Amino acid sequence: MKQDWVKGQTVIERNPTRRVQIGSTAIGGGEPIAVQCMTATRTQDIDATVRQIQDLVNAGADVVRVAIDSMKDAEALMEIRRQVSGNLSVDLQENYRLAEVIAPYVDKIRYNPGHLYHHETSKPWQQKVEYLVQVARDHDCAMRIGVNCGSVDPAVKSRFAETDSISPMLESAWEHCELLDGLGFDRYCVSLKDSDPQKVIDVNRRFAEKRPDVPIHLGVTEAGMPPDGIIKTRIAFEQLISRGVGDTIRVSLTVPNNRKHEEIVAGRKILDDIANGRVRSVVDYGLKTLNIISCPSCSRVENEAFVELAEQVREMTRYAEDHRITIAVMGCRVNGPGETDEADLGLWCGPTHVNLKKGPETLGAFPYDQILDRLRLELDALIARNSANPAGTRM
Questions:
Q1: CA atoms within 13 Å, Cβ hemisphere of 172
Q2: Can you tell me the distance from the alpha carbon of 385 to that of 380, in angstroms, rounded to the nearest whole number?
Q3: Residue pair 326/312 in contact by the 8 Å Cβ criterion
Q4: Distance (Å, rounded) from C-alpha 40 to C-alpha 43?
Q5: Which of 49, 217, 230, 293 is 20 to 30 A from 280, comparing alpha carbons?
Q6: pLDDT of residue 395
């Protein structure tokens, strides 16, 4: 299904996931990508948690997740629910039996397959999941199967080499999906998270290839403080969302509680930037036409002329719109040299000159007032070469 995020901008073909209702919002099925967040206050501090949830909802959070790990936490969340609006998801942490207590007060239940073995260790995990599904059914809740790299079920992890962290996550997610499907419950999504953006990209791509019907919650766990935490998350989201993978997102940042809303702001900014081709890594939108991408401006930009140049490149290259070519315009020496390698033509901007590349090959550095003419020459040569050898064009 196609979704035009920004009028006149990139139309990204999303994976054909099913639609899952979460309170007043929905994910999958072509719905706009939802932005989620999680409270960082102590759940039993009712006043602080209420303030934070209200702050997150006011910032545009579609779903807010709250963790509970005891009956006192659950009782606190009941009172919190009475004081706040918005869609609430409960994170059961390691006490899955609290589901029946709190389900009447929330819209979604999140459980981690790797935590189910902590309680009632003699009971098969399948029975525990069957219980959770029944609770969700009884109380009109959606569910999330939340797989984390650091807490995979030991029984699953033991089947794979110690150096393979991705296969156990996938196997666990697929097993749980199969069980929920067998129980006739399809109101669920899946998350597969790691602190390494590349692993997040790999594991979610592989999951989506096998289960394109299941909505995916994207996130990079332990991303860290901004701006680095945002950059790591952005790169993973760029590579996945640009190819249609991802139905809801969370940006996890290390920030003080009174700045938690910045996760929502960052998430919406990333989505808008991807739709407009403002990215830090070279992405393939799967388009058969010209693809101009440029990184979002930030404190690393060494010449503000970069922003104007990106617009000039977009305008100058309109004559080549029918050619499947990617041109990347990067604003600094930090991301520019490496991130332009995957583009057909790449520009990374220094203080006084713009460095031009053809794939990984460096073509030289040119003054800002000369770079467009040289770029046009290289673009024309690339179009001529591809026209003469269609089989050799980029796929």
A1: 35
A2: 9
A3: no
A4: 8
A5: 217
A6: 39
Are 272 and 7 in contact, with CB atoms under 8 Å apart? no
Strand partners, 366: 354
What separation in angstroms does the CA of 241 have from each of 5, 56, 112, 292?
A: 12, 23, 24, 16
The domains of the chain are located at 2-275, 291-392
Architecture of domain 291-392: 2-Layer Sandwich (3.30)
Do residues 48 and 252 make contact, with C-beta atoms less than 8 angstroms apart?
no
Task: Please say whether the beta carbons of 77 and 262 come within 8 A.
Answer: no
Give the mean pLDDT per block of 10 residues along the chain (395 residues): 42 90 97 96 96 97 96 98 97 93 98 89 94 98 94 90 94 98 98 94 98 97 85 94 96 91 96 91 82 76 85 94 92 78 91 94 96 97 89 49
Separation between Cα atoms, residue 328 and residue 188, nearest integer Å: 37
The whole-angstrom separation of Cα 196 and Cα 190 is: 18
CA distance 91 to 99: 9
pLDDT of amino acid 29? 96
**What letter represents residue 95's amino acid?**
N
In sequence order, which ranges of the chain are alpha helices (DSSP H)?
46-58, 71-83, 99-102, 125-138, 154-157, 166-182, 197-210, 228-241, 262-275, 305-316, 336-339, 371-388
Q: Is 38 left (phi over 0), alpha (psi -120 to 50) or beta?
A: beta
* Intrachain domains 2-275 and 291-392 with the same fold: no
| Superfamily the domain 2-275 falls into | Dihydropteroate synthase-like (3.20.20.20)
Is the pTM higher than 0.90? The answer reads no
Residue 376's region, left for phi above 0, alpha for psi from -120 to 50, else beta, is alpha
φ and ψ of 388, to 5 deg: -75, -25
CB 47 within 8 Å of CB 79: no
